[in-house]
Amino acid sequence: MAPVTSATTVMAGTTVDRTGTGTDAVGGHGDPRYVLRTATTSDLGGARAVMLDTVYRDLKSGYVPRWHADIIDPETAYLRPERCTLLVVEHRGEIVATGAVRDRGPQAPPNPQGVADRFPSGTTAQLCRIYVRPDHRRHGLARQLVRELGEFAARAGGYTALYLHTDPAVPGAEPFWRSLAREVCDERTLPGGGQGIVHFELPMPVLDASGTPAQ
């Protein structure tokens, strides 16, 4: 699994890029630091807690085995496969945010056939589980996770598309993704409303020969 290879410090609106050692330090308001890094097995309990809290509190679905098996066993889903990853953000020893890449596209059903055809497994990097605890939102953590996950997918090789879907019923989710990605399908416009979710495609980052974003 490829590690995070760059580090960015964000303090008081100023961004400074520097060569890193596998972590990103993302400053919040004031002195406390948020450290973004590739998850290890010791992080899985904290990551699982963030994910489960989100599906119960924000998504209102609770744990559904056919949808959330990766939450219960993130090691198999994200740590073992070479072209998948799980990133975490740590704050004062606690995992407060997660984000992952899985190496399969949306399946039909339940997703529209046209979306599944456009994003086939194997060549699609699906961004998922980009969750931030409520007390730690509005620090740029989700945006930083998206950037690092996109760069991971570009470095992994073989991926031609970055895909994700979101539930617009979650406060703030739809405008956040619309600020970063292009809508592919809004199921609310389909006959019957589908699942009510919105599918997006993100631009694949362009990296230079060293594996860092091209300027």
UniProtKB/TrEMBL annotation:
The organism's place on the tree of life at top rank: Bacteria
Alphabetized SUPFAM superfamilies for the sequence: Acyl-CoA N-acyltransferases (Nat)
Protein name: GNAT family N-acetyltransferase
Residues in N-acetyltransferase domain copies: 34-207
Polar residues: bias regions: 1-11
Entries under InterPro entries matching the protein: Acyl_CoA_acyltransferase, GNAT_dom, NAT_camello-type
Alphabetized UniProt keyword annotations: Transferase
PANTHER family per UniProt: GNAT FAMILY N-ACETYLTRANSFERASE, LD18367P
Biased composition (Low complexity): 12-26
Ranges where the record places region Disordered: 1-30
